[in-house]
Structures
1.
Amino acid sequence: GQSLEQPSEVTAVEGAIVQINCTYQTSGFYGLSWYQQHDGGAPTFLSYNALDGLEETGRFSSFLSRSDSYGYLLLQELQMKDSASYFCAVRSGGSQGNLIFGKGTKLSVKP
Amino acid sequence: ETGVTQTPRHLVMGMTNKKSLKCEQHLGHNAMYWYKQSAKKPLELMFVYNFKEQTENNSVPSRFSPECPNSSHLFLHLHTLQPEDSALYLCASSQKQRATDTQYFGPGTRLTVL
C-alpha cells in the first residue's frame, strides 16, 4: 500500500531552524511535495522534489533521498507566521497519478 | 486568492437534506478534485476529473455524487449524509501533465451534518 509518516507536532522558537521529516512507502514514485496550511485556510504548495538533493526557496528548503524513501522540509529563521500545518505528499502511479498526503505536522512557533 | 473559489463556505444540514457544493477554477487547469479533510486525518482524495472525465473514485459512499459539467466547474451533490461526514471539503485544480501536479486549493466548505 501507500503511506506517509511525519511527526504530528513540532514546536520551535522564533529565529530558530526546524526540520520536518517525512518517510513514505509507495509504488511508482513520482516526486515528493510539501504544502502549508494555516488554521482556517487552504493548503498551499511550497516545494517539489523529483530528484535526490536539496531544493532551496528562500527560508524554506526541501530534501529528498529516494533510496531511503525519505525527505524533509527545513524552515530557517522561523517567524510567527510560519505557525501552520505542513503536509508532505507523494505522487505515485506515473505521470497521471494523484497525490497522497501525509497526516500533517502542526508547527507552533513561540516568541 | 488561489484562483479556485468554493461556495458555500459553511453549510449545516440535516441527515435528510439534499445540498450541493460548488467549485470554480479560473486557472485554465485540466483536472479538478474533491478532498475531504477531517480532524486528525490526512487529506482524503474523493474524486478526480481529468478533462471532465471522472478518473478516480476512492470508494466514496454513493451519498456523495460529483458532477463536472466543464473543465472549470465542479459540484458535489450531497444527500442523506451521516454525522461522520462532517468535515472540511476542499476543491482543487491542477495541470495534470506537469510533473509537480501542483494542487491549487479553494478555501473549502465547512460541512456540519446534524
Note: The longest strand of chain B covers residues 18-25.
2.
Amino acid sequence: AQSVTQPDIHITVSEGASLELRCNYSYGATPYLFWYAQSPGQGLQLLLKYFSGDTLVQGIKGFEAEFKRSQSSFNLRKPSVHWSDAAEYFCAVGGLRGWSGGGADGLTFGKGTHLIIQP
Amino acid sequence: GAVVSQHPSRVICKSGTSVKIECRSLDFQATTMFWYRQFPKQSLMLMATSNEGSKATYEQGVEKDKFLINHASLTLSTLTVTSAHPEDSSFYICSAKLGGTYEQYFGPGTRLTVT
C-alpha cells in the first residue's frame, strides 16, 4: 500500500541546535515530495518541495531536505532552530495514484511531527 | 502570488443544518481544487478532488451526498456539509492547483463546530 511515514510523533530540540525530521514513503516510482509547517489553528505553510533534479532541496526559513531514492526518504533538516520554528510538520507526497503530467491527484500526508523548542 | 482564501474561517452550526464553505483562488485560475479534512491533532486526509465544470471525485469512505462539492468557476469551489452532525466537526482545508503544474496552494482552513 502507498503510504507516508513520519516515525517521530514528537521531537524536542533546544534553541540553536540542529534538527532533522524523518519522512519515508512507499511508492514504486519517483513521487513529488513536500514539507509543510502548520502552527496551531492555522493553515499550511510550504517549506520546500522536490519534483526532480538536484536531490538536496533548499527551502524557506533555512530548511533543507534531501531526497534519497535508495532509502525512500525525504528528511527535513535545519542547522539551527529558532523558537518560532515550533509547529507541526507534515511530509506529503504526490503521485501515489498515478499522477502524471497534467494529472491532479491530491496529496497524501504523513501523520505529522510535533516540534517543541526548548529555550 | 498563488493565494487561496477560505470563507468562513470559523463556523458554528446546529446539528441537522447545512453549512457552506468557500474556497477561492485569488490571483490565478485553478483548474483543480482539493478538499482535505483534519481532525484535532491528526493529519490531513484528502476528501475529494474537484475539477472545474465537472463532478468531484471523492475518496473512498467519503459520502458524496453529505459533502457536496461544486466547482462552478476557475476561481471558486464550495463544500457544503449537509445535515451536519457533531462528528462532522473538523478543520476543513482546501487547496488549488494551477493547470499544468504539480504544486498545490493551500487555503487557511475553516474550523467547523457542530453543536
Note: DSSP finds no helices and eleven strands in chain B.
